[in-house]
Amino acid sequence: MALLEIEAVSKAFGSLKAVDDVSFSVGAGEIFGIAGPNGSGKSTLFNIVTGIPFGPDRGRVRLDGTEIQARTGDAIARLGLARTFQRETSFDGLTVFENALIGAGFGKPGRPARVIREAAAEALDVVGLPDGAFGRLAGELSVYERKCLMLATAVAMQPRVLLLDEPASSLTKPEIEASIGLIRRIAARGVTIVLIEHVLTFLMTLSQHLLVLNNGRVLAAGAPEAVIADPRVVEAYLGT
Ligand code: ADP
Ligand code: MG
Question: What pTM was estimated for this model as a whole?
Answer without folding.
Answer: 0.94
